[in-house]
What does this fold into?
Amino acid sequence: MVAGFSRPFYHNLAGLLYGHRFNKANYGGMIRHSEAGMLYRWAAKLPGNSVIVEIGCYGGLSTSYLATGCAVNGSKVYAIDPFASDLDLQAIRTDHKVSLQSKPSRDQVARRLKDTGMAEYVELIEGYSQEIVKSWNRPIDFLWIDGNHDRAYEDYTDWAPFLKPRARVGVHDAHPVYGLARVAEAAQKIFRSEEWVKLEHVKSIITGVRK
It folds into this structure.
């Protein structure tokens, strides 16, 4: 079983120090404070001008924590989500884990990022990850997978060709205890090879760094 090491004291401290900046209730977000704090820490530790690809933005909660880390080193988050567009198609493709009735629009998320001073560190891309990747051409330093839970492994395989050496990959809801079974299965397939170091889990997140 791939679960990675856990550092509860460090993770909880990161959550206490960095994971309370944004009110979860306002965003409709589903990340824990320790997860939010570590998203900030991982983004902040990237080399300058790094590229973060986020699959699954929803209301922009995790996006905002990643962007806060980007403010440290001038990096940028490319956040991919269909947002509130074409809800009929989303109803067909949904994994039924997120209500489509109150899903934020791209404009709503953009306004929120502007209001919090994070807009310059984020580019919101409206669409589906499997379609956006067809025209993607940037090397990636950090791939954060938190979109359709039924597609977690496919999201990784679609985007893996763009990962730099030493790139980080993080998958939300991937821990076999704290996450969802089908995402945990995807994480087993992603991280079971020997190309990964620094495997770690922060509650439901499993993450690793490529050799």
User: Anything to note?
Assistant: The CA atoms of residues 16 and 192 lie 31 Å apart.
